[in-house]
Amino acid sequence: MLSREDNELLCRVGPGTPMGTLMRQYWVPAALSSELPQREGAPLRMRLLGENLIAFRTTSGTVGLIQNHCPHRGTSLFYGRNEDEGLRCIYHGWKFDVTGRCVDMPSEPAESDFKHKVRATAYPCVERGGLVWAYLGPRPALPPLPELEANMVPEGGIQIFQRECNWMQALEGDIDTGHTVFLHLGGMQADDAPAGSWARYALSRRAPKYEVVDTDSGVMYGACRPAEPGTNYWRVANFLFPFWAMVPTGVLGLEVRARCWVPMDDEHTLAITIGRTPRGTAKVGRQTVGPVETLPNTTDWYGRFRAVANADNDYLIDRELQKTASFTGIGSIFLQDQAATESMGAIYDRTQERLGTSDMMVIRTRKRLIDAARALRDRGEVPPGVDNPEVYAVRSGGVVLPSTANWVEATAELRRGWAKHLDLTRDVLGGVPAV
Known about the structure:
It contains 9 helices and 21 strands. With 435 residues, the chain is α+β, with helices and mostly antiparallel strands. It has 2 domains: 109 residues, Rieske Iron-sulfur Protein, CATH 2.102.10; 281 residues, no CATH class. Strands 12, 13, 14, 15, 16, 17, 18 and 21 form an 8-stranded antiparallel beta sheet that branches. It has a 4-stranded antiparallel beta sheet with strand order 2-3-4-9, with no helix packed on it.
């Protein structure tokens, strides 16, 4: 279990906090490019790392990200006029460009140089693969974007939804492989899956053996189960600094995907899944594997990508279905995770936990984050991956190996980004995409 001090350090991401300072060393996915569809279009409210910010697309198409309150008298720049390469406050007409520079101050005498002394907080933005990336850190020379294959392939897709809980407990659901065969597949038996399939292996041994190793980008784990005689089925997954996860579902070498858990603030998180995603919605028994159905976006601070099924309607749980065909009675894989992590509370008190061997990936990931945040705070050490974008070019998934193999060495080529593996097929999953 974590101490109260470590739990606070891990969860709090606002300006000036150790974890918030660590996250500001990295580029952060802030929005979809499609949320700002028009040049000189309507600005966008967003919460990001505990700050209220306004995003806007300029006349030339550049995305700006600026503080909410006008530096003059505090009027929200959300109501500003987006015109001629800047955002103009409606109160007194002060206008700011994407760098935060005041470029016009019509309420002051023409001969005044006051506008040159006023600056709004603004953050650099770039777009890649349908995402707007923002840098909220202190460096004048910006670090490189991470080489996430999933954000760089032309056929990649994006799914996004909001989770109303702390970013870390949301992330931990992605690096906790043990819950899959209960929360998602608890209604299935081993005999429900084809013989020789990876689904059969997973359902036959619900408590695998775990191994965890540190990597240049974060932490990696392998969950091992017996397969055919002389072989083992491994599920391999990654945590990548500061809030990325690559889940172990699918086939290692074929899956090009990643999910980030971007803290809006300490109690609200945006989940952004990128990469090659199956079209449509797949089925596992009576439950779906597909995008979360979301409400129409509104303009309030928490109005983006909220789930239709949520705590207010008990995630549309069907108790009869739970008795007959589903372990949870909640109809979607993602919503099952949503219910599990949100029901812990906005920020779970980890001093109350009792962790077992199946939690070793969660334990190691927490330690790496806490150690890195303290090293930055106390010694100025740059966190992992900030200056090494190539370490993000990795993959995750399942694989069958000889029982004598070293899984880390044996999967090195399969885990490498942009590698081609034409001999691999997803048929081995047995029709269960959550495996």
